[in-house]
Amino acid sequence: MGGDSTDYTTDGADGPGWDTGLEDDSGAVLKAVSRQLKLWREAAGLRQVEFGAAIGYGEEMVSAVERGRRIPKPEYLDRADEVLGAGGKISAMKKDVEEARYPKKVRDLAKLEAEAVELGAYGNHNMHGLLQTEEYARALFDMRRPAYSVDELDRQVEARMARRVIFDRSPAPALTFVQEEVTLRRPIGGRLVLRRQLERLLEVAQLRNVEMQVMPTDRDDHAGMAGQLQVLKFGDGSAVGYSEAQLMSRMVPDPKQIQILELRYGIIRAQALSPRESLAFIEKVRDET
């Protein structure tokens, strides 16, 4: 909930899927759009190369879109609508394409984050997804084994970056993060990428609705040894928990289990450095990087 056996990513790069039992319907939507674009083009008597030249894209891109290998951007659909004389019918697909652009489980996660009034997350291997810079996220996804294709890598990075709108919400949700010290030091993407990632942490930590904490490696008592976790709370008093393991991420709706995650997270926060101490710690690591 918070890195991607399915193509859904939470906070890491290796690919845990969110175990909701729901199928991802985005593929069917995109196939339908691709088929419609091809039918409109053929009805206009245009070859792919001619159509591509008319809308400002190469033949290879047109072919990829019509085969469902690339997701058309809004400007592609607008230009296609204009050139093919579709009278707004193709442009009207933009909403469906935008909704299907990211894996369904990412869309579901973004919906939960958009409704949450409180979010608490503990990360132990890499920066939490909401905190990641684009270049850090790209480097993280690039490490995935088996590897993503270039197009899928772009899709996953775009999906992760889109979730950062949570920081712009009004009223602002209460956000707390606890990051293991190792996540501040592991040079994912290289030293320069890490330094900019640390600067991003410091920037986010200045927001009035955000509390950032660091769990030092030298702690001899640690409530988070079972792995990273996250808890989201909503305005109606309900809550959802989340835990992650290799190849699988699990949503936790059961109140008794959520209570356990809340207990652990509360102890983790108490064991970590205070927010003020944590900022000083992050600044020190940044200066050493």
**Bulk shape:** elongated
Indicate the radius of gyration in whole angstroms: 21 Å
Beta strand count: 7
Query: Which stretches of 5+ consecutive residues score pLDDT under 50?
Result: 1-9, 14-23
Topology summary:
Elements: E1 17-18, H1 26-43, H2 48-55, H3 59-66, H4 74-84, H5 94-100, H6 104-115, E2 116-123, H7 134-142, H8 150-162, E3 174-180, H9 181-185, H10 191-205, E4 210-215, E5 229-234, E6 239-245, E7 248-252, H11 255-271, H12 275-288
Parallel strand pairs: 1-7, 2-3, 3-4
Antiparallel strand pairs: 2-5, 5-6, 6-7
Helix pairs in contact: 1-5, 2-3, 7-8, 10-12
Q: How would you sum up this structure, described in words?
A:
With 289 residues, the chain is of the alpha/beta class. Helices cover 47% and strands 14% of the residues. It contains 12 helices and 7 strands. It has helices at 26-43, 48-55, 59-66, 74-84, 94-100, 104-115, 134-142, 150-162, 181-185, 191-205, 255-271, 275-288; strands spanning 17-18, 116-123, 174-180, 210-215, 229-234, 239-245, 248-252. The longest helix is centred in the N-terminal third of the chain and has 18 residues, at 26-43. It is elongated, with a radius of gyration of 21 Å. The two termini are 29 Å apart. The model is unreliable at 1-9 and 14-23 (pLDDT under 50).
